[in-house]
Every structure is written in C-alpha cells, then in structure tokens.
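Q: Sequence in, structure out?
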Amino acid sequence: MTQYTYQERFKTNKGVFDEFTHRNLFELQSRNIFDFLLSPLKVGKESNVFLAKKGKKYLIIKIYRLQNCDFNKMYDYIRKDPRYEYLKKHRRDIIFAWTQREHRNLLKAHELGLDIPKPIAWLHNILIEEFIGDKEPAPQLKDALPQNPLKFFEKIIRDITILYQHGLIHGDLSAFNILNHHEKPYYIDFSQSTLTKTPNSEELLHRDLTNIVQFFKKQGIKADAEELFLKITSIKKTS
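A: Exactly. Output:
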C-alpha cells in the first residue's frame, strides 16, 4: 500500500477541516476504513460530502461541521426521538448524536432490505457509507426521471410502508434525497429519520408522502397522499 504523510492524506482546501476532524479522519484511515480522500462532492451548510477510495472501490464520507451546524435545529428534531431523550443541549454532543442516529437509521433500513448506501463506519461527526453509482455518483431523482414512473412510484410507496411497518420513518423524502440508480430508487440522507414512536412521526410521514405524490403527479401519476397515509398507518407494525 502506498504510504502517505499526514498532510497528504487530508490535503484539501484550507479551513474545510478543523483539527478535531483531521484527527478523527486519521483515526478512521488508521483503522483501514478508507485509503484516502478524493474530491468534495457537496459542500452544504450542515455537512461536507467527500468521495474517498478503499482499494478499487469508492466510498462516501459525510462530515458534519462542528462550528457551522445549526445545532439548535438539530436538537429540536432529535430531542423528540425516544432513543435520544437523555441528550442535553450541548453543541458537540448533539452533532455526534445526530451523526450516530443517521448511522443507526441506515443500519435499520439496510437490515430491512431497502436500497440505500450501506453504512460502513461512524466516528463523532464523521459518517462513512457505500458509494451508489458506477463511475459517477448516481443522479438525484429530480435530475433523472424514471423511464417507468408508475413502477418507480410504487416501489417508493412499498419501501415507505416497509419502514413504517418496522417502526421507522424517513422524515425527509423528496426528489433530492432519492437517487435513480439503474431505474431503482435508492434513499439517502437518513439524518432526520425517526421512530414511529416519536410524537411528530405521523406528521413527517404525511410530509414524505405529500412530497412524493406531488413530484410524481408531474410525471402523470395519480395518487392521493391522504389515502396513502391512511392505508400505511392502518398496517400493524412488527416493532
């Protein structure tokens, strides 16, 4: 394996990583989780997403910003989740819990057989997951309309139903957070996903369904979000 200096391993634009994140990237690389970072894919308000390499395979590394994250907004979301009722309002603790929750949600969805980026590792504010795509990242649904909209739509509704039946709601579904990879929906960004036990879970489910129905209405698919909501929530949950 090619040896890299510390600086070479994490060479990037000045100011992208704080020293704490540098150390944790180094720790994850030392554990042989990934070999080296490549180019940034997305720089957002809350997180930066990078492409990384592990052998011949690509990985995705998502890094939540410690200084720029709106941790108040994060706290408003996560404190309603029964898994995080213990959480106190401290910036780093909230960001670390937020990252861990996304990892846990991805694990749950993967266990249920949904098409998602398989979670590989997490450490504090860093989440590493499978790369979805071929040579290039799979496009977002908004940029790659399915050839068979009805089939694609029905698959999304089935997957939403499976999640609900097993006690989980995505909470942020849209044409931005669904990829079209070889004419199959792949779901990303599970940071807002929560348990059906959460007080506002049905509100989030309804919002997911509304977003999906409105998008596919433009593709000629007739569906009613309220009817779908009633049908899904009438199903007996297994957990």
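The two ends are 45 Å apart (CA to CA).
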